[in-house]
Amino acid sequence: MSPIPRRSLFKAAAVAGAAAQFSWALGARDAGAAPRAAAGGAGPVTLDWLEDGGLGAAPGTTVGVPWPMGTHREDQTFAVTDADGEDVPVQTWPLAYWPDGSLKWTAHAVASGTGKLTLRAGTPAAPHRKVTVDDSGGTIDVSTGVITAKLGRNGSTLIRSVTRGSTEIARNGRLVLIRQPEIEDEDQGSVRTERFDGAVDAVTVEQDGPVRAVVRIDGKHRKGNRGWLPFSLRLYFYAGSDSFRMVHTVTYDGTQEPGRASGDFIRGLGVRFTVPMRDAAYDRHIRLGGEGTGLLREAVQGITGLRRDPGAAVQAAQYEGRKLPDPAGWDQRVTTRLAYIPHWGDYTLSQLSADGFTVRKRTKKGHGWIAAGGGRRASGFGYVGGASGGLSFGLRDFWEKFPAQLDIRDAHTDAATVTLWLWSPEAQPMDLRFYHDGMGQDTYAEQLEGLNITYEDYEPEFGTPYGIARTSELLFWANESTPAAETLARQAEAVRVPPQLAAPPRQLIGAGVFGPGLYAEPDRSTPAKAKIEDHLDFLFTYYKDQVEMRRWYGFWDYGDIMHTYDTARHVWRYDIGGYAWDNSELSPDLWLWYAYLRSGRSDIFRFAEAMTRHTGEVDVYHLGKWAGLGTRHGVQHFADSAKQQRIANTTYRRFYYFLTADERVGDLMHANVDSDETFLVLDPQRKVRTDPYTPDPHALSIGFGTDWSGLVSAWLTEWERKGPKWEKARARVLSTMETIAAQPNGFVQGSGLYDLDTGRFAVADKPAVSVSHLSAVFGLNELCAELIHLVDMPAFRDAYLDYCRYFNATKAEQAARYGSHFGTLLLFQGHSRLDAYAAVQTGDAALAERAWAKFYRSDGYTESAPWKTEKLTGPAALVGGGEAAWVSTNDTALYGLAAIENLALLGDRMPT
Hints:
single chain, 912 residues, alpha+beta, 26% helix, 26% strand, globular
């Protein structure tokens, strides 16, 4: 892969570092920006695990590491050693490049290693047992050196078999979908269902070792002539591992219409394997994960608790999952009566809410179930097999993304069946119909009236789930025998919290990624700084606690947070139009990711990870006429008629992708490269335009704020990744930067007419002033900081810094500069980070002072806010907990980003 060609537009690497970018020129005083961690370089990087325990029972892990511009050529190799100085085999590939062709981000996959790992330039060690891929035959065979998986190229069997040595552990891996064609809202009628099976359309080997192999399988669920609910699976295999990981995505493309009982209602959605059962019934074992590392530990034919005792050693062996001695050596009063001890072939663990699971079992189909226990939150883990081998399996976020279920069937026969239900068939059907009948809002005028009372932007037929997606993660182990309880507990932990390596904050900061200078490690060296850090900690903790207290869980909901609080009802406004689910409004995703980048905190990472999985899949359309657009905040994640770039914004996905190399998120970002075409389909300003407008491919009205920031983030990412369309993407980045800068009023012009063919904005004939308080709060500042760092385009830099300088200026100052003021604005606290950025870029001490003035004394959160919760109990609330009625997610996102960026940029300029 050749380096990106250098052009005269680009700065030399020697002068492009963050330190050079952020210097002051304030007369005699040489005042640097806020102290930052030492810049990363070519030296070793210490990689640590987000949580204790290291790799544990997981098959492997992959981490993204950034490098300062000019540090490593694209052909650089890397080596890893563990805490004992031993070589750790590693597989490396580039994730992104700097404009000079040097490596910006690299991905590193490992399948072993203890404690902290050290990454350095060097020759990688080869794994003792390599992962290999053979795609020369009728199946694609992947071997880790311990297990071999045969993957189907077509048909409904995705994984033909999984073997360990000569023993087949599992076979017939397939996807199952249960469709219910009608929902009965009352207690009358009968329920019919039909089953669809996942059918393979395409298989792609994306990586083939030596440490990591990745195979992608795409298809649809089919029955007869109908195919629907497209799926995309990735299977991950690591060298020397006895397990593999599955990342499973479905995209909803069915029909559900409000007011109609018929439609495509999902009753069950699952992944199913057949597990050969070779051992005697008393040597066959069932394990189901309960709370934490708790386990239900049973045998298909139990010999404990009987009226006659086979012997303590025999009972202990069965409980521990070991092969029992020959029954001839037992107490013969048991041996001669084995035929009268039931065989329990079927087990179900069902988690229908975030607060309760039940376990039941039966001997076989046609016979009654008996209760076998239950609890609050199951781990989503299970095992079926015996002394000669068995399959462990697990579904991540099992209770968080309820309703979920684990089924084991026919374990008393020669072939048991395991189903991991992503949507439990025992739950109500998946009902995605729009939640109201429109209430007479048939015209734009009526819809705007509705917006003025519930804050919901309604439009008929716009509240559709067609095209939204959801991704789930699963793990499978091919065990040579029933694992010991401690091993099973480690497997369950790997399901719940997959081990993740991470580069330290100093490496991220020193590399200058995600906007050089915009974040620095937490600093409590002064009372003022400490107080802001306390506030940031309070806000994160409050939202983490609110997820639990308010039960923001469920298959489609987990990962999102609510928008605004209802102080009268002591609840978030879950049922009030645009005040309900947040859907990335004003960038809480960015707040969380920058909070992680500067701190390295695992709890923040996991919160941001869940949000990224949600907002990138559920809040965005991936199929249909609105593919590439996201949905504004609302009661349902797809309900609002505002389908916009600002929600599909690639900016929110970049962090997780570059930190983990997650291919699914990479897909989402690449899919947005041509999102400029969505402006042909839907005009985001259609309800408020006063002049006639028809979308024209050569003159599309696109705003320079929320619209362009969403587009340019996708283009920039494709360019950095050298994706399939990187040259087009690079041209779009540069041409739109150039033509925004060329507008009579730059960013203040507000919008321009964009040509899809040339990727350029037409330069307006006369100046205009069109500024929105929303323009810069969906990642524009963070993106422009990156672009100004990457591209030497003084006119663009000046245009953006002018926007930063004048948003928080007085109306008189705005009018003096542009001929008229910006009108009535708000969100000044959030925009103080624009003041801070411009202050450092220009060396303007007055701007630095204004940044802190707007941060402390404008809107948003002030120092006089309570900064604490009040205890909330019944009967005031459904569930007791802490309440901070003064908190809103808009203010939280803006305060969080302003605090982080202002501290990094102007931490040494805080007012006394």
